[in-house]
Amino acid sequence: MSNYRAWFSCIDENCGETYPLNEIIYRCRKCGNLLEVTHDIDTLKEKSAQEWKDIFDNRYRRQSWPYGSSVWGKKEWVCPYVEDNNIVSMYEGATNLFWAERFGRQIGMEDIWIKMCGNSHTGSFKDLGMTVLVSVVNQMKSEGKDVPAVACASTGDTSAALAAYCASAGIPAIVFLPKDKVSIAQLVQPISNGALVLSLDTDFDGCMEMVQRVCTENNIYLANSINSLRIEGQKTISIELCQQFDWEVPDWIIIPGGNLGNISALGKGFLVMKELGLIDKLPRLVCAQAEHANPLYLSYLKNFEEFHPVKAKTTLANAIQIGNPVSVNKAIRILKEFDGIVEQASEVELSNACALVDRTGTFNCPHTGVALAAFLKLQERKIFKPSDRIVIISTAHGLKFVEFKIGYHKGELEGVFSKYANKPVELPADYGAVTDAIFKAIGH
Length: 444
Known about the structure:
Elements (H helix, E strand, L loop, with lengths): L5 E5 L7 E2 L15 E5 L1 H4 L4 H11 L15 H4 L18 E3 L1 H6 L5 E5 L9 H17 L7 E4 L3 H13 L3 E6 L5 H9 L3 E5 L3 H15 L2 E2 L6 H6 L1 H9 L7 E5 L4 H15 L8 E7 L4 H6 L27 H10 L3 E5 L1 H12 L7 H15 L9 E5 L7 H9 L20 H12 L2
Parallel strand pairs: 5-13, 6-7, 6-9, 7-8, 10-11, 10-13, 11-12
Antiparallel strand pairs: 1-2, 1-3, 4-5
Helix pairs in contact: 5-6, 6-7, 10-11, 11-13, 14-15
């Protein structure tokens, strides 16, 4: 049994309630606040910062179970409670940190990077959190706990991750999707992995209300980011970023925000590294929201003095089409601690930002487009220094959103002027016509 310990604790430090990780609980019973996973930091401090770096580096991308996973390679910091034989892993993490050199040169900056979290088993960063959550369920079941199924509300990526990891473990999965509001690729993933897919005639917030009621009244385990086990896996993005930069800290990190678990996790990863001495400074954080679903941005404009949910409008960035994010209090706390910024992007801005950066070799999902557009807006306002190292988090693979890509290049996205549209050139099968078109395009 590991000497390292972790437990749930209330995010309100004045409350002080704690609960074991194998208890099915998402909010504090005393005050109703969200919970977070707390680690025995004193035990972790028994190893030096250099020892932890060496451990993580020696495990990175190796085949020794379960440490080849970039999440479970940090097991002591993530979830030491789960026994190795109950871990459900797809070798998640260790995704490409892409140096966007050509894009950077176009805008006069040299140190721009895109963290390609979509290069993962189900095509999104959600795998990082789902491996932890499903592994804990697998551990609980091995201890005799009655967990009949695991469920989530989703706009696509969460459901894909839940379905895949549950299928691997042989655990029933139930996903609640808003009808006609997810891409075909996102819909087919949970269907293919055998999940029970419930397509509800509502939006994400309506699905979220329903799944919480179903889980609470029927002992079904809830897999949304209200469950802080997900945050533990997602926080490894921060650790992995520093690891990939030889333990140097970027100056800025920009990440799209919907339910706001991602920005919370990002901050938590950096804070634990700083507390344990692996890094000596914190980056600035930027949370990017779609203009059609921007409650955190509206709160930021008022210095976070108040927060009001909004009715999210339809956005091309459908995974962050969330008007009442469950992790808002965690997110605001992190943004204050990291001197963070919240920016928004319109449908036109996110679409053209995607297409612009695609032309330099990437293939971006619309949510990454929100982060890219926010970056471009802040860069235009000269928020960054030319020498700053900036990482933009790409949350999902662009292949999950081919309808968005096709619509953009055909000029068929409603209300969007496709500035960088690239339509196929239709020609007769005639040599002269073909060569004329080629040399016209390449400028010879």
